[in-house]
Automatic annotation (TrEMBL):
A Pfam short name: Ubiq_cyt_C_chap
Region Disordered: start-end pairs: 51-78
GO biological process annotation, one example: mitochondrial respiratory chain complex III assembly
Family named by the database record: Belongs to the CBP3 family.
Name used for this protein in its record: V-type proton ATPase subunit a
PANTHER family, per database record: UBIQUINOL-CYTOCHROME C REDUCTASE COMPLEX ASSEMBLY FACTOR 1 FAMILY MEMBER (PTHR12184), UBIQUINOL-CYTOCHROME-C REDUCTASE COMPLEX ASSEMBLY FACTOR 1 (PTHR12184:SF1)
One Gene Ontology cellular component: mitochondrion
Domain of life: Eukaryota
Domain named Ubiquinol-cytochrome c chaperone: residues: 151-291
């Protein structure tokens, strides 16, 4: 059971550490301000004096025992230990604002990261010889029921888990950027720190990478990937779905040529929807780590829906019209050319015409 008693020595050490120039008088005044005085005092000397006065019949008004009812009111008005702890915590926050901010951010981002890391988590199953199945590139394959593996067909491996976790961490990073400028960097740093701790633990426990130098090298590579993901997804967030789809294709689908366009569009739709939804959450929910992600399968109906623009006539304007006219002239000249010299002359003629 935790004690409610506040150690005066610890308090003095904290204050002196944060402000070395604080005088002893300041410490005594702060101690009197923070720590409440006792409501009553049990003193043997005073009790004996009172008994002697009662025996002699010379009890004064100051020596008379207090009325029990009045004493009860006094105890009722006295601050409780719970309120004392709250006052002490509030005072410490004022004195050590940067320290308490770091602890709060560390605890909240730990909860936020756990939500991100659980989206595509997996487990390595080894045989009696301690071996696990591997991909063609040598990655160990695990087992998981996650949508990212079952429905999208992604390889259940460490790199896939890292990329899916990065995607959800990016969603939270976009929301954390809305924090005041003096707080946001601390929260972002703690979020990536929690990923590093979990990634190293997964390397050691799931993949039996016992060498600390190898784990450190992998962590550096992951951090470089994270910086690249921030730039790629930020660009897609600004320039549109086509650029975002290219970033998702490179990172989540590893640039595979046989990727299903529906799967790619589903991830892009899910990413944008979650950024909008999490961005609308209050600061209190984010600060308390109360964040959950939606189900990507709900995006399928929106992705497969045929757009009305697909039936609309295509109109070329601006640079696109000029480019189309260029290739039209090129095909006409090419059809009238039967040798290489004529082909080169056709190129020159077309380029001169377009330049004019």
């Amino acid at each position: 059971m935790a004690s409610r008693y506040t150690c005066k020595i610890c308090l003095r050490a904290l204050i002196s550490r944060s402000s070395p120039n604080i005088s002893q008088s300041t410490l005594r005044s702060s101690k009197r301000t923070i720590l409440p005085s006792r409501c009553f005092s049990l003193s043997t000397r005073r009790l004996d004096d009172t008994r002697q006065a009662v025996g002699k019949g010379t009890l004064t008004d100051d020596q008379k025992p207090a009325d029990p009812l009045a004493q009860g009111d006094l105890l009722k008005d006295a601050p409780s230990s719970a309120s004392t702890s709250l006052k002490l915590a509030a005072t410490l926050r004022k004195r050590f604002k940067s320290t308490t901010e770091t602890y709060v951010a560390y605890g909240s981002t730990e909860q936020l990261y756990k939500t991100c890391g659980a989206q595509a988590n997996y487990k390595i199953i080894r045989d009696k010889d301690g071996l696990a199945p591997k991909t063609a590139t040598g990655e160990e394959i695990g087992e998981s029921d996650s949508w990212w593996y079952k429905d999208l067909g992604l390889s259940c491996a460490f790199n896939t888990w890292a990329q899916v976790t990065f995607l959800h961490m990016y969603i939270l990073t976009v929301r954390i950027r809305l924090f005041p400028p003096e707080h946001a960097p601390t929260w972002q740093q703690h979020l990536i720190d929690h990923f590093s701790f979990a990634a190293e633990e997964k390397m050691e426990q799931q993949h039996a990478i016992t060498s600390g130098s190898i784990r450190s090298r992998y962590l550096k590579d992951l951090f470089i990937q994270w910086r690249g993901i921030l730039a790629a997804y930020d660009e897609g967030l600004v320039k549109g779905d086509a650029v975002m789809a290219a970033a998702v294709w490179r990172n989540i689908f590893k640039g595979a040529e046989d990727v299903d366009p529906v799967h790619l569009a589903t991830v892009v739709s899910y990413l944008r929807r979650e950024i909008a939804r999490v961005g609308a959450l209050s600061d209190d929910l984010i600060a308390n780590g109360v964040v959950d992600f939606g189900d990507p399968r709900t995006e399928n109906s929106a992705v497969v829906m045929k757009s009305k623009l697909m039936d609309a006539p295509f109109k070329e304007t601006g640079p696109a019209q000029s480019t189309a006219r260029f290739w039209h002239h090129f095909r006409e000249e090419l059809s009238r050319t039967t040798n290489n010299c004529g082909l080169v002359q056709a190129h020159i003629t077309i380029i001169r015409t377009e330049s004019a």
